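User: My instructor asked us to take a sequence, write out its structure as tokens, and then describe one feature of it. I'm not sure where to start. Here is the sequence I was given:
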Amino acid sequence: MSGNDFILDIGSDGIALVTWNAPARSMNLIDADATEELSAIVEKLAGDPAVKGAVITSGKDTFCAGADLAVLETLSRSFTELAASAGEETANERLFADSRKWSQLCRRIETCGKPWVAAINGTALGGGFELALACHRRIAAQSDKTRLGLPEIKVGLFPGAGGTQRIARMLQPADALQFLLKGDQINVERAKAMRLVDAVVPLGDLIKAAKEWITAGGDPKAPWDREGFRLPGGPVYSKAGMMVFTPANALYRRETYDNYPAARAIMQVVYEGLQLPMDQALRVESRYFAKILRSPEAAAMIRSLFVSLQEINKGVRRPAAIPKRPMKKIGVLGAGFMGAGIAYVSALAGLDVVLVDRDPETAAKGKAHSEALMNEQVERGRASSADRDALLARIEPTADYVALQGCDLLIEAVFEDRKVKEEAIGRARNVISNQAIFGSNTSTLPITSLAAAAKDRKRFIGIHFFSPVERMNLVEIILGRDTGDEALAGTIDFVRAIRKTPIVVNDSRGFYTSRVVGTYLREGHLMVSEGVPPAMIENVGRMAGMPVGPLALNDEVAVDLAWKILKAAETDLGPEAVDPRQKSLLRDMVEKYGRLGRKNGKGFYDYPQAAPKRLWPGLINLQPKQLDPDTIDVAQLKQRLLAIQALESARCVEEGVVTDMREADVGSILGFGFAPFTGGTISYIDGMGAKAFVTLCNGFATRYGDRFKPCKLLVDMAKNGQTFYLRFPPKAREAAA
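Assistant: Let's start with the prediction itself. The structure tokens for your sequence are:
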């Protein structure tokens, strides 16, 4: 029997083999059709007395990547439409029924009376792993690449097909909560150690091992459906239970500041579900899932962190007319921290790298960075010694620019100083080929002006990496005034090859990411000058959803760099371009007290050896006054920190620096950690509504100054009731993946 997604083969031994192999997709995904087809198979097998049991596996390299989130996005949108036409009660009933069908299918497999084995022959995530958990036995094929997990929390959702209830009945409650709230993907050995997988066998033995278990009399009943089942951690209302859930609630609030409804729902569903029989617990889970599915946070995170991110990663901005030209060799000018990181990720992707610096010793230090990173991977069992040696063999450290001959791409990553960069670009242009693309890793200097020193302005482009390069997934590509399509296409191909996310913006001072994050730093500086307690500034930054407060972030990027950028802006644009309060604070920090940031162990924070960082006590002496914290509106501080970044993003759209709203949102989250639960800077405005956002900014402008004055684009949008995504709809994908 063959269907659209599944192939059913009932052997002479009475064991059914169900092979999931969606023909039109590279991976198996859960959607309405797959759910309906598998449900029919389950009923057929359950009603056939000749069938002893079933093995479900995949005909692809992966078992199942989870639900098609585009379908979930459609469910949420359908709810809104039905609520408007038929009322919210009807819409709620429909959403509840539709969103729990996979959960009901999993439970039917679990209670059908026939033993089911999940033969996991590749990665199983989300609803795919929940399907495996509903089977009576899980056997995984040995593979270093396979990952298992429930990562829904990372897109504003939580496991809604029984994952919260089965995991909480298989693991100790503290371990279960950690697994669900972190959304980590684990390898098969770890899964076996956690008893989430029963056995790990070679791929060739997978189906055989699954059938043998059924033949040997595999039990068709889950542990929690047997009489006398006891929870691993004991009852919720017990001494042990209270030692988990009470502190877990405190930890949840400390880590999320209650910004993520899905995380709160996990806590509630596990707590409530463990006090109920399985079927009732699953119904509770489904009700919470339906509620979270229509939350604004889930809608924003699904759009930005799944749909938009996926489209960007597939090369939505790559010019379609330019044929792909595989890159084999790149050059990196500058073996400092950034250059060394770029060399590492490039060599990791299999590219040959020429790493150039002023002398062989400095270049060799840059290569040593890659060696240190690979040694760490070897120690953790994530790479072999042979992997390390092969990667290092691909990096050639040198002081000789002639070695750059034959490079397909050059990336200048020298010190953030115009003269230094222009000198490096000038030296390299004499040895590179006419076909080479030249990129500058600058965070603020306009690409058009740097291109004047290049061999061919059409082949010159900005390639802005984020620090540390090996950990940060975003690369900001900047088009100069004369940058051509070949340079853009080749650069996107390179960024995709090193497995990072490319966003494309037009040239301006600070481009997009640096401009926007600069407003976050500035607002923190100005709050210090206003007399807001520094600890409150930092805590409010995290409460607003940022990964760290503005002062801590400034220490990471370097206080002296912020001072240098401010002085450059004043020189180029005039005194009115900088706030004198910020200028005074940074000047004192750098020139009077020598506090440069984490790099010299002292900035807005002190960094004592073998002790956690702490705010510099002397910072209070740089405040003209100190405000009473009890008189400060915390909610307003949070809004200031987010609104100023969103406002600068709107200005970038108005000026044509950003042309794709998806890139603005994804870039803000991946680049500088803008509150993910909002969906990004542009979604933050759209979620609030342009009219409400303009009103908020006008109020701040009256109280805090013209930096909050809304731009003309926002005023027009507020007047016409528009959103960014409707006024600037995302373009259709221009190139094949």
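For the description part of your assignment, you could build on this observation: The chain has three domains: 6-294, 329-509, 514-656+660-727. Try explaining in your own words what that tells you about the chain.
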